[in-house]
Amino acid sequence: MPPLDASPLIHKDRMTSVDPDLVKQLRIASDQRDTDNGPRPMRRLPLILAGVAAVAAIFVGGWAAARWLPLGGTQVRTAAVVAAGGGATPAGAVLQATGYVTARRRATVSAQITGTLTQVLFEEGDRVSAGQVLARLDDSQLRAALKAAKANVESAQAQVTLAQVQLEQARADTRRSDELMASGMTTHQLAEQARSNVNTLAATLVSRQRLVEAAQAQLAEAQVNADYTVVRAPFAGVVIDKTAQVGEIVSPLSAGGGFTRTGVGTIVDMDSLEVEVDVNEASIAQISAGMPCEAVLDAYPDWHIPAHVIAVIPVADRGKATVRVRIALQQKDARVVPDIGVRVSFLKQAVPAAGASAAPSGLLVPAAAIAQRDGRPVVFVAGEGRAQARPVTPGASAAGAQVLLPAAGAGNTALHAGDRVILEPGAGLHDGDRVSIDEGAR
Q1: pLDDT tens for residues 44-57?
Q2: DSSP secondary structure string for all residues of 241-303
Q3: d(CA 236, CA 130)
Q4: Which letter does DSSP use for residue 13 in this model?
């Protein structure tokens, strides 16, 4: 197509000079292009959408890499948070053994006679004193026997009184008979009969006195039997088991059929608690009486109890190849209960006594990890490629590290043993900043 002359289109007075054939050719060419190749906007739409998707993918991938990958962040050095005061073997420990807390004074209390329980005056966990009434049995029959025994004693005592009166009368008659015989007013036979009567009544009095003693013994026996219906605590302690209820029959002897209880409850003297551990017989030569120890209850791993060896029981268990050792606890409170598991460390030197300085429990972090942010002490934990700020409450210093003691509202519970804290965090490090750990200095 020949080039068009634009001048006729610019000047209105020359529009009439435009060649109509040229204009028609231009329009037909445009129509022919659209017909052959299709509409141009519809042909480019898939390309545009593909480009937008590619840009979005690049953006999301870059954001994810920046969020989760520790690449390109501030390079830091870290140290692990360590638990203080629990779980570690004490310094100077010769060996360790496990065992249980036992009670030297432990009694299952029962009635001394067979009877039906009418009262049970205790529950598990109650503290009782020596002689305190724990239970009562039906005593109606024994009380009746006691009343009869008292009556027998009173009757015997009345017979003694009667014999004493008769004896006094007989002695008076004997004196008058002797006077009459001396004056010749009576015979020797009557005087001898009077003296014989005195001797008879004296013997009767002694016999009746012995009957009184027998009645009193029967009364004492009846009183003891009546007292057996009251079950009392043999010593002060804590009730750890209640084995019978009101209405059950208890007996000091075991009965068949399972209908008779042989005990009412079990009491433990908490002051007699000690530890028994089994030590391998190959290591028993290292243990001796009086040796210092440190006991840790399984339920309270942060509580280290000073202790010492009471005795090595001179007999071995051939099945387990162990020797039993008794350990005395130097500190006791309500946390020490019978049959609780315990781990004992035998020491070369004694542990500090109560009141002496000891390492506090808590979490240990290097002092270089503690920083100030907004007037508060914090540490930064390196996790998932980010610095995570954790508020803490520093305690006493110990061997170049700070002991972090949990305090109300301090937030120390957000820090745990095993977390890795950032050493020497700069003033420009903030919560959420990207970091990368220097593996060579870790």
Answers
A1: 666 677 777 776 66
A2: EE---TT-EE-SS--GGG-EES-SEEEE-GGGEEEEEEEETTTGGG--TT-EEEEEETT-TT-
A3: 5
A4: G
List all residues 6 or more positions away from 196 whose beta carbon is below 8 Å from its beta carbon: none
Question: What pLDDT, in 10s, does the model give residues 10-30?
Answer: 444 444 445 555 545 555 444
The DSSP symbol for 369 reads G
Query: Do 333 and 58 contact (CB within 8 A), yes or no?
Result: no
Q: How far apart are CA 389 and CA 302, in angstroms?
A: 27
- CA atoms of 383 and 164, how far apart (whole Å): 106
Confirm if 330 and 354 have CB atoms less than 8 A apart: yes
Q: How far apart are CA 160 and CA 163, in angstroms?
A: 5
Is the CB of residue 231 less than 8 Å from the CB of residue 108? no
Residue 216's pLDDT is 92
Contact status, residue 427 vs residue 392, Cβ threshold 8 Å: no
Contacts 24+ apart (CB under 8 A), 214-220: 214/156, 215/149, 215/152, 215/153, 215/155, 215/156, 216/153, 218/149, 218/152, 218/153, 219/146, 219/149, 219/150, 219/152, 219/153
Look at the pTM and tell me if it is higher than 0.70: no
Mark the ranges of the chain whose per-residue pLDDT is less than 50. 1-2, 4-17, 23, 28-38, 67-71, 86-88, 353-359, 398-400, 407-411, 441
pLDDT number for residue 403: 60
**CA torsion through residues 346, 349, 352, 358, sign:** negative
Element (H, E) at 421: strand 420-422
At residue 217, the pLDDT reads 92
Query: Taking the chain, what is the end-to-end CA distance rounded to the nearest angstrom?
Result: 78
pLDDT at 350: 59
Half-sphere exposure of 300 (CA within 13 A, CB side): 14
Shortest CA distance to 292 belongs to which of 331, 322, 328, 325?
A: 328
Residue at 316: amino acid letter: A
Return d(Cα 360, Cα 403) in angstroms, integer: 8
